[in-house]
Input
Amino acid sequence: MTAPTPFGPLQFQLVLLRRMADHQPDLVKEARQELSASLADMREANRRWQAMVRAPRGRGSLRRYRSVLGEPELTLKRRVGDLECEALLWPVPLWPDLRFEAMAGPGGAVWNEWLVRAPGAAGPALTSVPSLRPWSCTVDEVARAFPPARPMEGSAPTRWALALTDPGSGEPYIAEFTWGLFQRLLPG
Output
């Protein structure tokens, strides 16, 4: 019996894609092909990730990310209210202008995990609802482009939603995100 492939950045990207497949199956299929990964590879990566997350004596989130992704490319200090936090950023080859960010509070507990724009990378020009394209923007970029966007609970732990209004038409919408990356727009 052969040993399983070490779980690394490729498998982690497949985990990200697994959740995105619910909303953007065609984009996920293209991404899998770019990564030379099958549907079975994606499912197996997700199974292994879930086993790591749920292991009774498993590593904490930050240790798990470091063991899978290596040391972060960048660590930034951030203030959230009166707490000082650390944002740890790792490159994601599938999305070169994005980084996977784990936001850790005092004591190292991870509070948030999602994709963000890489420091210095230009984001899209978001001027109207039609400018929102799947996988083109992050939660933060949409929130800044459509104030006062209102955060809403997502349908799963890795999902977020924003209630927003099209500045041109005044129509309400709900923007849905998986792992912080825009997936789809629904009527509000």
Q: What stands out?
A: Strands lie at 74-80, 83-91, 98-104, 110-117, 150-153, 159-165, 172-178, 181-187.
